[in-house]
Amino acid sequence: MKRLIFIFLILSFKSLAFAQKEHKRYYSNGKLEESGQFDANEKAVGEWKYYYEEGNIERIETYDGDKVFAQSFWKNGKKHQISTSQNGYFLGTSLSYYENGQPWSIKNFVNGSFDGMQKSFYSNGKLEYIGFYKKGMRVGKWEYFHENGKRSIVATYDNDKNLSTDWYRDDGTPWKKEKNDYSTDGKLTVYFEEYHLNGKLERTGSFFEGVEVGIWEYYDEKGKLIERKEK
After folding, report:
1. What are the CA-CA distances from residue 53 to residues 25, 26, 27, 120 (Å)?
2. Is residue 200 part of a domain?
3. Does the residue 185 lie in any domain?
4. How far is the C-alpha of 136 from the C-alpha of 131, rounded, in Å?
5. Which helix (H) or strand (E) holds 223?
6. How far apart are CA 48 and CA 60, in angstroms?
7. Cβ contacts of residue 126 below 8 Å, gap of 6+?
């Protein structure tokens, strides 16, 4: 009985091996460009490797049913991207790196849509921005930073709708602020503030559909009101 099982396993393995077809493609210089296997239905299976024309590895893809785990590399051999996809859609956490090895981005997906925390970094390793998606739409607080590490922008979102945005200069001092109010028919009113270099309020007013409206006030660098006019 054991011998029959052993023979059956060998035959099954041979049948599987014959069902898979080796694939290789070469550059015009004779170097290998890609290699992998197709199953009997001409579907990619197992591990596939792709190469730069110089011969070093560019990408490795591993097929497991309808999932693909992919790793790509810079020409210097350092990691470039790591991701998982299913039926052509990104799934889970995708990581990318700069050519110097520093992290570039962290992105999370559900069924191909951004979902969860997202981060991006400058090539010096400092954080560029951090924010959150839910079902492909921005939600909550998003923070952006200058390359020197100082805060650049703070914005809040609700289902991808921008509720407010604060801008900061590269020394960290406030520059502009906007609060957005949406009417039931989708019209946008923006309450606006702008600041002098010393942080004192410079002007304040409102926009309706991109046009200045209502009372606008202007201040000098000491904070004294110098003009007030209606638009």
Report:
1. 12, 9, 7, 30
2. yes
3. yes
4. 12
5. none
6. 6
7. 145, 147, 148, 149
> Tokens for 131?
């924010």
Q: Residue 114: count other Cβ atoms within 10 Å of its Cβ.
A: 19
Rounded Cα gap, residues 26 and 10, in angstroms = 33
Q: Which two tokens stand for residue 52?
A: 């730069």
Residue 84 CB burial class (10 angstroms; 0-12, 13-18, ≥19) = middle
Q: Give the tens place of pLDDT for each residue, 133-179.
A: 999 999 999 999 999 999 999 999 999 999 999 999 999 999 999 99
- Residue 216 domain-assigned? yes
| E-state strands within 27-78 | 32-38, 44-51, 57-64, 67-73
CB atoms within 10 A of CB 97: 20
Domain that holds residue 177: 173-231
Nearest Cα neighbor of 116 from 102, 130, 127 is: 130
Cα distance between residue 58 and residue 35, in whole Å: 12
Phi, psi of 14 (to 5 degrees): -65, -40
pTM of this prediction?
Answer: 0.83
Q: Is the dihedral of CA 121, 127, 128, 130 positive or negative?
A: positive
pLDDT tens per residue across span 25-48:
999 999 999 999 999 888 999 999
Number of domains present in the structure of the chain: 1
Residue reference for tokens 């070093």: 56
Q: CB-based contacts of 180: which residues, under 8 Å, 6+ apart?
A: 161, 162, 163, 164, 165, 188, 189, 190, 191
Residue 81 forms part of a structural domain: no
